[in-house]
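Hi V.,

You were right to ask for the full record rather than a summary. Here it is.
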Amino acid sequence: MTIKTKGLLTVLIAYIVAITLGFISFSFTSNFSEMLQILIADIIATFAIYAFSVAYKNSSFYDPYWSVIPPVIAFYWIAMNDYIINTPTILLMVAVLFWSLRLTSNWMKTWDGLHHEDWRYIDMRKNLGSAFEIIGNVGGIHFFPTFIVFFCCMPMAQNFSSSYNWLIFLGFGLCIIGVLLEIISDKQLHAFREKNRSGTGIIETGLWNYSRHPNYYGEIIFWWGIFVFGYSFSGFNYLLLAPIAMTAMFMFASIPWIEIKILRTRPQYKNYQKRVHILFPEITILKRLFKGKNG
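Predicted structure:
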């Protein structure tokens, strides 16, 4: 058994334990609302993964949580609808499973084993010092993502037997387009890294010619698709804040953190920043069109 296989099996056991404990919690929360029940189960599962992270001194145990739990949440809401099989539930599960399988498999390809921890967690540990465990590990790494993903999953909570409008198909389409953008951008990045093993180059071709982070752009589109899916049932409500929060997290936290790291070793990245928008390819295209008309 390879080191990576052993690590993946350990992570699998961790998630089986976490999800099992989450389901057990339903026995003690039956008097609460359905939304509160699944939130409590989510929190308990997160605590379980945190326990494994501490035990193995590797916070990357949490990395798959982002893509593993949403299908469980989607299935929960279908279960609350007596396991109804109709157009909305089929569209929801196809979209969520497609997204989940892509993201989880991508993590499995890039994670080397229990000795491999995400560089962001290592940076956080160094920068926060003694405050890392509470602020960084519990708050930043484990529970902040849990809460924001749960918030973005809330549009899945619908009465799937009720009426809906054509926007359900738009939401599904956005989800699929988002995942496809992630797949394409990941393949382009992988091919670039294979040709440039020194790690000093900057990819500026394909989707990366229009967005500095097209993979994150696809992720954001997916979550907007989930919101539109829910909107087709319930109409406009406060859940609009969910995809807005997700977009803001990527634009003002995740991406800047990554770009600071890139600039440490590749100062030429500044020129790329000037030419290509941080996230939205539409802005890059419009800027080039405007520049061309006035050039």
